[in-house]
Write a structure and sequence with these properties.
The protein is of the alpha+beta class and 425 residues long. The protein has helices at 8-26, 32-41, 44-62, 107-157, 160-175, 181-216, 219-222, 238-243, 249-252, 254-269, 309-375, 381-413; strands at 29-30, 70-76, 95-104, 224-225, 276-284, 292-299. The longest helix has 67 residues, at 309-375.
Length: 425
């Protein structure tokens, strides 16, 4: 048996592939959750953002440490002329030097650099969450487009039989001398109009399937879709959504941005505090002379603070205030957007309910009655054709309403990551 040990991102990628591949092949249906999982496993954009976050987190580890020491190697006072030219030992001033130099930035500065780097890593995590939610949103839109395209085709196919019966009845009446050619032509026109609608529905279905394959791969080309999640419920209710706005991915990025800006402003102000370095070196001379030990201390002299450090500190402070102002404006805009989306979601539910429970059943009954009356020679063709047209239009209107409701649901369902939403899908 050969055992291979993998750790880190590679192990996660291999494990994800090992789990998802059999799962995708074993199931005959593709649920919305599985589609989103498959999309995440094959997203290059998500992988790139994850690597950027890991890079920032790695940089944060070293940000507060002392710089590496420097090795000093040198040759001093080597004669270039005379009897001692190029000799390393005959002139008393010639020395071979070796030493170490260590810089000591102030601890407060190192802490501020570490804080800024930590905020950068947190910002990377927040941006990764935004990318994950955007991917889930795009995959959900593709999944729902395919679901609605399938439903649209199925609904129109159910109207084929009544429309064919109407055309057959018109031809039968024409053959029996009880109807005119205009009636047969009108019935046939209604049948051809439905055929055009079916062609459009098949085209929309093929387009939707292609876009789902773009996100989830081959599983989207063959698997049937699982049951759709209910559109009248959100992972987080309206009150919870509005109460936790700052936890939403689009706004969560501002907290680390503001923290980073504040740390950078504090670091710019701390630039007036001088850093220092220590250098220790050993110099070897010729055998006739004593060796030397040197100790040197260097210190920054911020003598021109008003022209150098002060303007930079002012600029960083203004940037921090800018981030805070942008966050406040984004919060107001975002709240308005969420409230608007909730209103659209609520209205879309009411519109769909009216069509499904009132208008569509009435249109079906009217179309069935008109067809029965015409086939039984108790009614004219025109009312039957018009009733069929109204039923078709209401079927299509129902699907349009469902699409509007699905779009409103998607806009609200992926504002917060599932973990933040209490683990609900």
């Amino acid at each position: 048996m050969v055992r291979i040990k993998c750790t880190g991102p590679l192990a996660g990628a291999l494990l994800c592939c090992a789990v998802l591949s059999p799962l995708a092949l074993a199931t005959d249906t593709l649920s919305l959750d599985l589609a989103q999982t498959l999309a995440a496993s094959r997203s290059e954009t998500l992988s790139a953002q994850r690597l950027e976050h890991e890079s920032a987190a790695a940089r944060a580890v070293a940000a507060g440490e002392l710089p590496d020491p420097k090795l000093i190697l040198g040759l001093e006072n080597l004669p270039l002329a005379g009897a001692d030219a190029y000799s390393l030992s005959r002139d008393f001033m010639t020395m071979q030097r070796i030493g170490l130099m260590q810089e000591f930035p102030r601890q407060a500065k190192r802490k501020l650099r570490a804080d800024a780097a930590s905020a950068e890593a947190e910002l990377g995590a927040a941006e990764l969450a935004v990318k994950r939610l955007e991917l889930r949103r795009q995959t959900a839109a593709a999944w729902w487009d395919l679901r609605l395209a399938q439903d649209s085709l199925a609904a129109l196919q159910q109207l084929v039989a009544p429309t064919d019966l109407l055309a057959q009845a018109a031809r039968a009446r024409l053959a029996g001398g009880k109807g005119g050619s205009g009636e047969a032509l009108a019935a046939q026109s209604a049948r051809l109009a439905l055929a055009d609608r079916l062609d459009d529905a098949r085209r929309d279905l093929a387009r939707a399937r292609a876009w789902l394959v773009r996100w989830v791969g081959d599983a989207g080309a063959s698997a049937d879709l699982a049951a759709a999640p209910p559109l009248d419920r959100l992972p987080l209710g309206p009150e919870e959504l509005l109460a936790s706005l700052e936890q939403h991915a689009q706004l969560a990025v501002y907290a680390p941005m503001e923290r980073r800006a504040r740390s950078e402003a504090d670091l710019a102000r701390a630039a007036t505090l001088p850093d220092w370095s220590l250098e220790v070196s050993y110099a070897r001379r010729g055998p006739a002379y004593a060796d030397m030990l040197s100790v040197m201390v260097r210190m920054d002299l911020p003598l021109f603070e008003q022209r150098r450090q002060a303007p930079e500190a002012r600029a960083k402070a203004l940037q921090a205030e800018q981030v805070e102002a942008r966050r406040s404006a984004a919060l107001r805009d975002y709240r308005a957007g969420v409230e608007s989306a909730l209103a659209e979601w609520d209205a879309a539910q009411r519109r769909l309910t009216r069509v499904q429970t009132e208008l569509l059943p009435l249109a079906r009954a009217e179309a069935a009655a008109a067809l029965a009356a015409y086939r039984g020679a108790r009614g004219d063709l025109a009312p039957a054709v018009e009733a069929q047209k109204r039923e078709i239009e209401l079927q299509l209107d129902t699907l349009r309403r469902r699409k509007e409701l699905a779009a409103a649901w998607i806009a609200l369902a992926y504002l917060v990551e599932p973990a933040t939403a209490g683990g609900r899908p």
